[in-house]
Design brief:
Elements: E1 3-7, E2 10-13, E3 18-25, E4 32-39, E5 46-52, E6 56-59, E7 67-72, E8 77-82, E9 91-101, E10 113-114, E11 118-123
Parallel strand pairs: 2-11
Antiparallel strand pairs: 1-3, 3-8, 4-5, 4-9, 5-6, 7-8, 9-10, 9-11
């Protein structure tokens, strides 16, 4: 069983930065996919970034070159550094874990463990 707790959300002005953290408890292998997703009111859940096997990283098109995902497996913590924030980044941000070793991280529906989310609000 894996338990995830996100933190670091808040309200910022456009152009600002935030750093999200996701602390995990339970067994997390370095090969497992850990990911950030977000969902704004009235919109579908969107993949933000994922990381597995230490260095394999994928970003959503809307956050490339602005967001950076990283993980500290010793601390069992996932991070998301968000720079140059835009109002359209406003959403609830969730971290998730896919507890299997795979070649490529799956879509959101296949992730088994989810955090409760942390709200990010960007004002113009």
């Amino acid at each position: 069983q894996v338990h995830l707790v996100e933190s670091g959300g808040g309200s910022v002005q456009a152009g600002g930065s935030l750093r999200l953290s996701c602390a995990a408890s339970g067994y997390i292998h370095a090969d497992y996919c850990m990911a950030w997703f977000r969902q704004a009111p009235g919109k579908e859940r969107e993949g933000v970034a994922d990381i597995h096997r230490g260095t394999f990283i994928t970003y959503g098109d809307s956050v490339k070159d602005r967001f950076t995902i990283s993980r500290d497996d010793a601390k069992k913590t996932l991070y998301l550094q968000m720079n140059s924030l835009k109002p359209e980044d406003t959403a609830m941000y969730y971290c998730a874990v896919f507890p299997y070793s795979v070649f490529r991280c799956p879509s959101s529906k296949d992730y088994k463990y989810w955090g409760q989310g942390t709200q990010v609000t960007v004002s113009s």
